[in-house]
Design a protein that fits this description.
Layout (H helix, E strand, L loop, with lengths): L1 E6 L2 E6 L4 E7 L2 E2 L10 H4 L6 H4 L4 E4 L22 E5 L3 E8 L5 E10 L2 E9 L4 E2 L1 E3 L2 E3 L4 E5 L2 E6 L16 E2 L4 E2 L5 E2 L10 E9 L6 E7 L4 E7 L6 E8 L14 E8 L6 H5 L13 E2 L4 E11 L7 E7 L2 E6 L4 E5 L7
Length: 347
């Protein structure tokens, strides 16, 4: 079942079969990415492909995030592969729930609301047992690449192994105190440019700076000439993971046609290293960065996305502040912009 949400000239769709948001349009702008095989019968009827992968699109909530080598959930957990039960529909809002039976009967309630240019999400996690990872998984498509800006980070890390053999952009197994990751072909990545000219499949983890009260990522897309703000509470989601998917996966259903995709995945996890590693001693925990949350108590996880036209000449955001119902943006060249944002979401 698909639930449609509307607010003014903004609309979104919630796909209850896998719990994702395959469509979000703001003023005619298509904001989120959807895989090209979502409507192909040979993919949708293939029992060997996970539901999450068959219906890959938009944003979805992963719990646990990535590989579950403890309870053996499917990749990104039952929240990304199994149906959700709708509890409430209110035009611009939908509330749904899912169970994590493999984790002591934990319950997740998803609350999505459209207000103007913003999509607000709140996940309430309750009951259950054990430690678990989680992350949001929004994806955008950039036809000709784009520029990235971030709230202050104190470290960047890559996984110990490749995402896909011989297709990594960054050197594996590095931990740096800045965003200048070493490149596999030599040189460094400065953290601000999507590598549109490289066939790659890669992944890195950015660690929020101490004391940040609002974490954010800004994606300015070149061809689409717009910008997406992805906002989080760093106390709940101390890491931001970047997934580059640009044509390297040459096996079905990917077939080298998943190109120009960037995932901006905020959460509490150890990147792509699996639940067992996230529960144990690891480099992030050594930096006092949590990589799991305890089940059996209530957690409220708050996330938001804002879609805007890109002001002429803008390329790098240097500041984003939330104050009294407005987001205040400052660009590297000195330009400023203030846009409404619902009060109370991050309070």
């Amino acid at each position: 079942m698909k639930v449609e949400l509307k607010h003014g000239d903004t609309r979104a769709v919630f796909d209850t079969e896998v719990g994702n948001i395959p469509l979000w349009q703001v003023g005619g702008r298509a904001v989120l990415h959807a895989a090209p095989w979502r409507d192909e019968a040979e993919v949708q009827t293939n029992p060997d492909i996970l539901p999450m992968e068959k219906r890959l699109a938009g944003d979805f909530f992963c719990m646990p995030f990535g590989k579950d080598d403890v309870a053996e959930s499917p990749l990104h957990g039952s929240t990304a592969n199994d149906p959700w039960e709708v509890l409430r529909e209110e035009g611009n809002r939908v509330v749904a729930t899912a169970n994590l039976d493999r984790f002591g009967g934990a319950v997740v309630v998803k609350d999505i609301t459209l207000i103007g240019n913003a999509m607000l999400q709140r996940h309430i996690v309750d009951k259950g047992a054990g430690e678990i990872t989680f992350a949001h998984h929004p994806m955008v498509h950039m036809r000709e690449g784009g520029r990235l800006s971030f709230s202050a980070k104190r470290a960047a890390m890559t996984d110990p192994t490749w995402q896909h053999p011989e297709s990594n952009y960054w050197v594996v197994n590095q931990l740096r105190g800045d965003l200048h990751l070493e490149l596999d072909g030599g040189g460094q990545w400065d953290g601000r440019t999507y590598p549109a000219g490289h066939v790659t499949e890669d992944f890195c983890v950015l660690v929020e700076a101490r004391g940040n009260t609002l974490g954010w990522t800004c994606v300015m897309r070149n061809a689409e000439d717009d910008m997406l703000l992805v906002l989080k509470d760093p106390a709940e989601m101390p890491v931001t993971m970047l997934w580059l998917s640009n044509g390297a996966r040459d096996f079905p259903p990917w077939n080298s046609r998943h190109t120009g995709v960037l995932g901006i995945e905020d959460g509490c996890t150890l990147g792509g290293q699996g639940l067992k590693a996230a529960r144990g001693d690891n480099p992030l925990r050594a930096m006092d960065v949590p990589t799991t949350i305890p089940l059996g108590q209530m957690h409220t996880i708050r996330h938001a996305m804002v879609s805007l036209p890109r002001p002429p000449g803008w390329s790098d955001l240097t500041e984003l502040r939330l104050s009294k119902g407005e987001l205040h943006l400052r660009e590297a060249g000195g330009g400023t912009l203030s846009v409404p944002f619902p009060e109370g979401h991050f309070d």
